[in-house]
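Standup notes, structure subgroup. Blocker cleared on the NDP input:
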Amino acid sequence: MSYIENVYKVMEQRDPSQTEFHQAVREVLDSLQPVLEQHPEYQDALLLERMIEPERVIQFRVPWVDDEGAIQVNRGFRVEMNGAIGPYKGGLRFHPSVNLSILKFLAFEQVFKNALTTLPMGGGKGGSDFNPRGRSDAEVMRFCQSFMQELYRHIGENTDVPAGDIGVGGREIGYLFGMYRKLTNTFTGVLTGKGLSWGGSRIRPEATGYGLLYFTREALATKGESLEGKTCLISGSGNVAQFACEKAIQMGAKVLTLSDSSGFIHVPDGINEEMLAWVKELKNERRGRIKEAAEKFSSVEYHEVKQDRDCNPLWTIQADIALPSATQNEINGKDAENLLNNKVLAVCEGSNMSSTSEAIEKFLDAGILYTPGKASNAGGVATSGLEMTQNSMRLVWTREEVDQKLDEIMCKIHETCAQTAEEYGKTGNYVFGANAAGFRKVADAMLAQGIV
Ligand code: NDP
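Run returned:
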C-alpha cells in the first residue's frame, strides 16, 4: 500500500463517521503523489499524518434562553487546524448540520486556501448546530453572547481570528464582538467582518463574491474568453451569491438564477440591479425566502426543490458558467452531467467543496475550466487578512484600495495555481495546482519549525 493510501486508511479507522472530512482529505492527498516524489523529506517528517490531525479541537456547551423563557442547549466548536504560517483564521458557521466532520473538512480546506492568499494566516473553522432561521434578533444575540462566553478564552488577534460563514453575517459578528470586548476589556481585531465604524474593512462583505468573479475572469482568459455576454447560474442567495451576482452583472454577464434551501428563481432575461437590491433587502434585513421574488417580479419564475432529490434542476438550465455559492456537495455526479450536456464552459466554486468527488472527476475528464473553492473563493479570507492588517496599523483603506488589493491577490492565486499545475505537467488542472501549491507552502513551514 502506498504511503498516501496508508495515511488515508488510518484516518478512516480513527474517525470512521467523518465522511465530509475524509472527502476533503482525499481530494488533497490524491494530488500529492508527484510532490512527495520530488520531496521525500515531507514523508520522512510524517507531514501528511501531522497535517490531517488538528492542532487543537475545542468543543463546548452553549446554553441560552429563548423568547418564551425556555432553556436551549447547542454545541459550539472551534477547530484550530494548522498555525504554521500564521494565526488560525477561518469562519464560524451556524447551521443545524454543523458537526465535527463538517468543521474539520472546512478547517482542512482553509489551511491550503489561506496559504494561497500570500498572507500569513493559518487555518481554522468553528461554529454551532444553532439554527438562526426563524429566531428573533434578541434570541440570536443571546445565543452569540453565550457562544462567546466560552470561545473568548481560545481566540485572540495573534492566536485565532474567526470570521463569518453560513448563518454568520454582520449581525452575528457584531453580537460576538460586543461580548468579546466586554469579557476581555480590549478592543482588538479578534474577529473579521466587523462593521465599518468599529474596525471593519471596506469590501469585506463583497470580497468572496467579487473575488470569485476576478478568479473566473482570469480562468476564462486562459481560453481567450471573457465574462462579457456570458450566461451564469448562481446557487445560494446569501453573502457569497449576492456579491457574485453583483460583480457578474457589472462585468457584463447575465445571471439567470439564485436559490435558497427551499428552491430557486429563474430569470430568463437575467437578474437586474433592481431585483438584486430587492433580494439583498429580503435576505439581509427581512430574512425572507427567495420564492417571494416571484411574487414581486413578473419576470421571475420560482421552482421548489426537494432536499431528497437525486439532482438539482437549477443545474439543468442552459448556461455558459456555473458559480455554486450555497453549500458543500451541491453539485453531484448527475448535476455535473447535466451541466456538461449543456456545454458549460466553466464551473468556478464560491462555496467550499461545492462538488462531490464524482462531479470533479467528470469536470476534469471533460477538460472544462473547473476551479475548486479553496482557490476561487479565497477572496473572502484574503480581505479578512487585509482587515487584520488595517486593525494592526489602526487605519482604514479606501474602497478602491481594498478592491485593487483583492483583485491583485486573486490574480496572484490564479497564477500560482496555473504555474504549479504547469510545472508538474498538468496544465489547466486547478485542483492539482491549488492543492500542490498550498501544501508546499505549509509543509516547508512545518519542516522549518521542527516536530511540534
Ligand atoms: P449565507 O448563510 O450568507 O448564505 C448561504 C446560502 O446558501 C443561503 O441562500 C442558504 O439558503 C443556502 N444554503 C445553505 N445551506 C444549504 C443547503 N444545505 N442546501 C441548499 N442551500 C443551502 O452563507 P455564505 O454566502 O457566507 O456562504 C456560502 C458558501 O460560501 C459556504 O459554502 C461557505 O463556506 C462559503 N464561503 C463563504 C465565505 C464568506 O466570506 N462568507 C468565504 C469563503 C467561502 P437558506 O437560507 O435556505 O439556508
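Discussed briefly. Residues 207-376 form a domain with the Rossmann fold fold (CATH 3.40.50.720).
Next: hand off to the docking folks.
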